[in-house]
Amino acid sequence: MTDTAIETNGLVKVFGDNRAVDGLDLTVPAGAVFGVLGPNGAGKTTAVRMLATLLRPDGGSARVFGHDVVAEADAVRSLVGLTGQYASLDEDMTGRENLILIGRLLGFRKPAARARADELLEAFGLTAAAERQVKNYSGGMRRRLDISATLMNTPRLLFLDEPTTGLDPRSRNQVWDIVRAVVSYGTTVLLTTQYLDEADQLASRIAVIDHGKLIAEGTPGELKSSVGAGTVHVRLRDPGQRADAEKLLSAALGAAATPDPDPRRVVVRVPGHGTESGAAEDAARALSELAAAGIVIDDFSLGQPSLDEVFLALTDHPASEKEAAA
Amino acid sequence: MTTTVTEPQEQTYVPAAETIGAVLDPRERPARPSAWSASMTFGWRAVLKIKHVPEQLFDVTAFPIMMTLMFTYLFGGALAGSTGEYLQFLLPGIMVQSVVMTTMYSGLAVNIDIAKGVFDRFKSLPIWRPAALVGNLLGDVLRYVLASVVITVVGLILGFRPGGGVMGVAAGIGLLVVFSFAFSWIWTMCGLYLRSEKSVMGVSMLVLFPLTFLSNIFVDPSTMPGWLQVFVEVNPITRLVAAVRSLMAGTPDMGELMWVFVATAALLAIFGPLTMRAYNRK
After folding, report:
1. Which end of chain A has the least Cβ crowding within 10 Å, N or C?
2. Are A142 and A219 within one domain?
């Protein structure tokens, strides 16, 4: 047994003249959720596909539980499971048949594969839909079936590539609960996401990737304190008080106001102390100072820093979509 | 894609940590399946897909029947004096044409699987790598047999009386199916390389039409102009038809049979590895 689930050294993947993954060094500890955060085209999916042995690296090396992803690909394949961005399911077959197919391919005999399929369908709330063709499933059901197919062989490491992209909030929460359950039973999860919120909710460590390179790594707390814990948005009743409000809030929070095109809006970043309650406290105190000064507000919110703000703080450029490369 | 199913269960499903924990319980992993067993599992998948989408059997049932009827009655009188006479000549050939035409669906199936992302999962499993492709082709073999049987039955009804009897016809079908299995690898490879379903279809039509029509299937090549005879002579379909005809007539032509066996082996030896290379790179 090893305490490191994944270790990569200078991992490279080139598509034409696009260096999708460009010298990535990652160390993922076992037994927790590790978040990989980055915008579209940052190289998250490419990195995951290399780690799951679906793509051959063009340079560098990667080991999963000590096994090289190229030289010992089969050993890696028996330890990992991948649920990609797009459901890897056979649309024409029923949910149950999909699971039995995977079970048979993993070497289960027919009765064992059926039993395992039924057990998974039950755990993921799909028993009633078991005999329906997957093309009639909703997005959330599809995702759950996809994850349960990946869990068929009880992988030690589960790759979830943007598992909630395109899901409605209820289905997203279900996926989050599933991830928490999976990791609480000792499976390591590597999760890629575009949402800081999601990484923050689930991951105990987060790596931020941009242009195929690691640009920051740490606990969500560390990351947020480097970025700021959040942003206070205030909507004034009287736009004429904007200058006063900006001055007060900046002083109370210790940060300059972010320019905003709306004359009635004031946006100020809350510098982090590594904990969230600190940010909320700071914001509440700042707002009460506004009230004390007689500035009337219609609305306010304390927002999580967005991926853009993380990128601004870490790289001095906003998260940019790569031009049609992927 | 757009169908959304709302049902009571969907609304109320709350993932329970214990039940999910129970399915994650480390248990004895089964032994890795053999190459044969993995391929057969994919074959089972192909059969299930036929069960769920039975319309796809049109090309191996309705289409061959139509071809047989059309050509027998259209050309029979003109080419052989009577439709009955012509049928004895045509049937083995039209069977070859129908089955060889069907091989292109192997490429389509692979292309669709890739587009849908389901191949990603197969590739991330620790199984014998070619199993997914071989299994698909095993499912296709079933379609070839079905098409052959349908045509034989239609032929018998119309008055096809093969000299080789049951054994001769079975041997002919067997040879045709074996060759078509090998031939399908070409389309599987195309299915891996080409971008869309449509382009796979286009390329295979472009090859299959001349290959099956410019052959000895419909008319005796000696009636054709010299330059065309040259093409017909080297066309592998001509050799295959000659071999199948000889088997069904009960007078096996060893030379033609050898030729078909060598061609089958060559197709597998060339396109098997090429296809696997494309598959591993995807």
Report:
1. N
2. yes
A83 and A195 assigned to the same domain: yes
DSSP letters, A106-145, are TT--HHHHHHHHHHHHHHTT-GGGTTSBGGGS-HHHHHHH
Domain hosting residue A87, numbered range: 4-224
Would the pLDDT of A325 be above 80? no
Size of interface A-B (CB pairs under 8 A): 151
8 Å CB contact between B108 and B200: yes
- Degrees, nearest 5: CA angle B35-A160-B20: 85
The Cα–Cα gap between B76 and B219 comes to 10
Do A174 and A246 belong together in one domain? no
For residues A39 and A149, membership in a common domain is answered with: yes
Query: Looking at chain B from residue 74 to 113, which residues have their Cβ under 8 Å from any Cβ of chain A?
Result: none
Residue A101 distance to chain B (closest CA, Å)? 7
Asked if residue A323 is part of any domain, the answer here is no
Each residue's pLDDT tens digit, B27-63: 778 888 999 999 999 999 999 988 998 888 888 889 8
Q: Does residue B208 belong to the interface with chain A, where contact is any CB pair within 8 Å?
A: no
Instruction: Please provide the size of chain B in residues.
Output: 282
Q: Mind telling me how many Å the CA of B230 is from chain A's nearest CA? A: 44
From the list A91, A102, A178, the residue facing B20 with the nearest CB is A178
Is the predicted pLDDT of residue A47 greater than 50, yes or no? yes
pLDDT digits (tens, 9 = 90+) for B153-175: 999 999 999 999 999 999 999 99
As for the ipTM of the complex, it is 0.82
How many CB atoms are closer than 10 A to CB B3?
8
pLDDT single digits (tens) A294-319: 888 898 888 776 666 777 777 666 55
Residues B117, A133: C-beta atoms closer than 8 Å: no
Q: Which of A202, A224, A246 is the last residue of a domain?
A: A224
The shortest CB-CB distance from B123 to any of A54, A80, A185 is to A54
CA B158, B164, B169, B170 torsion: positive or negative?
positive
Residues 6+ apart with CB under 8 A from A8: A24, A25, A26, A27, A47, A51, A60, A61, A62, A63
- Per the structure, the count of domains in chain A is 2
CATH of the domain at A279: 3.30.70.2190
Q: Are residues A180 and A268 located together in one domain of the fold?
A: no
Say whether A78 and B30 touch across the interface (CB within 8 A): no
| A316, part of any domain | no
Residues A243 and A161 placed together within one structural domain of the fold: no
The last residue of a domain, from among A224, A251, A285? A224
Range of weakest confidence among A113-127, A140-154, A292-306, B234-248: A292-306
Instruction: Tell me the torsion sign for CA atoms B26, B28, B29, B30.
Output: negative
Best B32, B120, B124 residue to mutate vs chain A (most A CBs within 10 Å): B124
What does the pLDDT read at residue B178?
96
CA distance B206 to chain A (A): 29
Decide if B122 touches A, using CB distance below 8 A. yes
